Amino acid sequence: MQKGRRATLTGNSGRALKYGGAPVVGGQFAPWAPIAAEQTASGFDFAWKVPSGDAYTVWSTDASGNYITNLTGIVTGGSTALESLETVFHRP
Description:
By secondary structure, this protein is mainly beta. Helices cover about 5% and strands about 30% of the residues. The protein is built from 1 helix and 6 strands. The longest helix is centred in the C-terminal third of the chain and has 4 residues, at about 80-85. It is globular.
């Protein structure tokens, strides 16, 4: 995934990302850090990265921001699974 704007723990609508029903707070999943968040037809997708390495994952949430599943496992930036999601995050 190409570098882009830094994500917050809220989607574009301002809804908070939730895990297990509770809002996610900064550093909760350290060393993972959110790098992009986009609204989808059914909720939000959040991309995460380990800042010191080449490890990424993407979470899917419902419309209220509740975590549903990982769209990828832990992958590298060159992963075809990750590259297939770049259009969701408006990356070429």
